[in-house]
């Protein structure tokens, strides 16, 4: 059977691959897995939410589960409440930043952590074998309204963040899952909020659910036009955020991550920061200068959270804007991240541009080399074997996700794409020239390996 769960759960086109029949099976499998336990269910703003939710809930109650239905909520809120309410599992129906025709199913453990690969496999084999728990008519499950529980999340964030000045904040929620919650939270904390695209809408009419620089032109203009203090935008399900500076500029993602890591380590006096293999080398620079340590993982928040728990990390995040704050919970949280950034700005007395400027931005070059899927293992084996001889002065080779080689003035990452017939190359150098040199060398290495494979 083709694997159902990827790095972020199940994700596919709604009513094409991700059908009500599949959602029903996932519900039945989770009822089997939890032995008819208590399950929290929420969804984002997609048009397919009701269709998939109804089918999923049918499977759950057929297996004797009590379903606590939150309704519309960001993924991190579902994750937080799963643990807080003592649920056996949580299910988020979302395709995050994917186009509107997609949807997905992401499952969380009782601890409010995204299902690790091992648990996903268990669920997959229950689905494959179709040995579903079916209860007697007298013990069928039921659905309970849990929409009020979102207030518990709001209260918990208010306990964590308090602001003393009236910040003028632009929020572009993109018609996604944070549309109601993010403006509400900022207002409750005393901010003057200017919200854009804050009507939940599964067609995402305002902008793409992926908060790229291109998608945020309007938000950037609004920050500039209103002379706001700062702006934030979230992805479709609200586990990621990006910052817009007081000048209305898109904050470089690696720079934001490093600047916030620097701030946290300064306050905590050191500790472990977790990030993925794709993040800039500036992370090590900043973190080691503060007496901290960087742990690098595979791409995906499941790997980040797993490493954070194992290393007792003080902070973790990916350069896509998915940041995890362990003092609150162990799921990336866009709304919380943006509030904590404002908190950091207030405590440091810096403007967003000044907060970022404490950390340098190094040039990064990304290239793809075509490679048929079946050749990838052979190509990657050769890349692994030769990488330290091809690049001069390699101090460290990391093999957690593809192969990365670190040097004093740059690094390269060579990683097979999980979805396309290409090998992806990322090269970063302290100068444009060095980055290009490293990218060219990596392309030669991969193309040579592909030609021999
Ligand atoms: Mg997301």
Give your account of this protein's structure.
- It is built from 14 helices and 19 strands.
- It folds into four domains: 10-150, Alpha-D-Glucose-1,6-Bisphosphate, Chain A, domain 3; 165-244, Alpha-D-Glucose-1,6-Bisphosphate, subunit A, domain 3 (Alpha-D-Glucose-1,6-Bisphosphate, Chain A, domain 3, 3-Layer(aba) Sandwich); 253-357, 3-Layer(aba) Sandwich (Alpha-D-Glucose-1,6-Bisphosphate, Chain A, domain 3), CATH 3.40.120.10; 364-452, TATA-Binding Protein (2-Layer Sandwich), CATH 3.30.310.50.
- The longest helix is centred in the last third of the chain and has 21 residues, at 432-452.
- The chain has 453 residues and is of the alpha/beta class.
- Strands 1-5-4-2-3-6 form a six-stranded mixed beta sheet, with helices on both faces.
- Helices cover 38% and strands 22% of the residues.
- The mean pLDDT is 96.
- Helix 1 packs parallel to helix 2 (49-62), helix 1 (20-34) packs across helix 4 (117-129) and helix 8 (253-268) packs parallel to helix 9.
- The protein is globular and about 70 Å long.
- The protein binds magnesium ion.
- Magnesium ion (MG) binds at residues 96-97, 235, 237, 239-240.
- Magnesium ion binds at residues 96-97, 235, 237, 239-240.
């Amino acid at each position: 059977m083709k694997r159902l769960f990827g790095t972020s759960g199940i994700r596919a086109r709604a009513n094409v691959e991700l059908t009500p029949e599949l959602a029903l099976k996932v519900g039945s499998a989770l009822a089997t897995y939890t032995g008819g336990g208590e399950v929290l269910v929420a969804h984002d703003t997609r048009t397919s939410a009701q269709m998939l939710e109804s089918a999923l809930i049918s499977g759950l109650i057929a297996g004797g589960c009590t379903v606590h239905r939150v309704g519309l909520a960001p993924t991190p809120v579902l994750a937080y409440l799963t643990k807080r309410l003592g649920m056996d599992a949580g299910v988020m129906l979302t395709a995050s930043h994917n186009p509107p025709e997609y949807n997905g199913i992401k499952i969380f453990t009782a601890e409010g952590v995204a299902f690790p690969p091992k648990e996903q496999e268990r669920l997959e084999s229950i689905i494959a074998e179709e040995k579903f728990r079916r209860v007697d008519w007298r013990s069928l499950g039921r659905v309970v309204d849990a929409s009020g529980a979102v207030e518990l999340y709001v209260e918990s964030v208010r306990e964590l963040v308090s602001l003393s000045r009236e910040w003028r904040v632009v929020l572009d929620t993109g018609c996604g899952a944070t549309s109601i919650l993010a403006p509400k939270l900022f207002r409750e904390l005393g901010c003057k909020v200017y919200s854009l695209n804050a009507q939940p809408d599964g067609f995402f009419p305002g902008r793409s659910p992926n908060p790229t620089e291109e998608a945020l032109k309007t938000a950037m203009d609004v920050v500039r036009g209103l002379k706001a203090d700062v702006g934030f935008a979230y992805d479709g399900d609200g586990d990621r955020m990006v910052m817009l500076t007081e000048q209305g500029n898109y904050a470089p993602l690696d720079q934001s991550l490093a600047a916030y890591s620097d701030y946290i380590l300064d306050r905590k006096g050191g500790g472990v920061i977790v990030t993925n293999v794709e993040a800039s080398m500036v992370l090590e620079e900043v973190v080691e200068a503060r007496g901290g340590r960087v742990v690098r993982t595979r791409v995906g928040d499941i790997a980040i959270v797993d490493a954070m728990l194992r290393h007792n990390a003080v902070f973790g995040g990916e350069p896509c804007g998915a940041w995890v704050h362990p003092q609150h919970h162990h799921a990336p949280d866009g709304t919380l991240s943006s509030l904590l950034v404002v908190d950091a700005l207030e405590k440091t007395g810096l403007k967003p541009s000044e907060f970022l400027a404490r950390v340098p931005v190094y040039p990064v070059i990304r290239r793809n080399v075509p490679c048929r899927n079946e050749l990838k293992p052979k190509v990657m084996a050769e890349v692994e074997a030769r990488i330290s001889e091809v690049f001069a002065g390699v101090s460290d080779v990391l093999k957690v996700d593809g192969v990365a080689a670190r040097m004093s003035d740059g690094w390269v990452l060579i990683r097979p794409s999980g979805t396309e017939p290409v090998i992806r190359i990322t090269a970063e150098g302290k100068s444009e020239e060095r980055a290009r040199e490293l990218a060219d060398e990596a392309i030669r290495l991969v193309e040579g390996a592909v030609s021999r494979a």
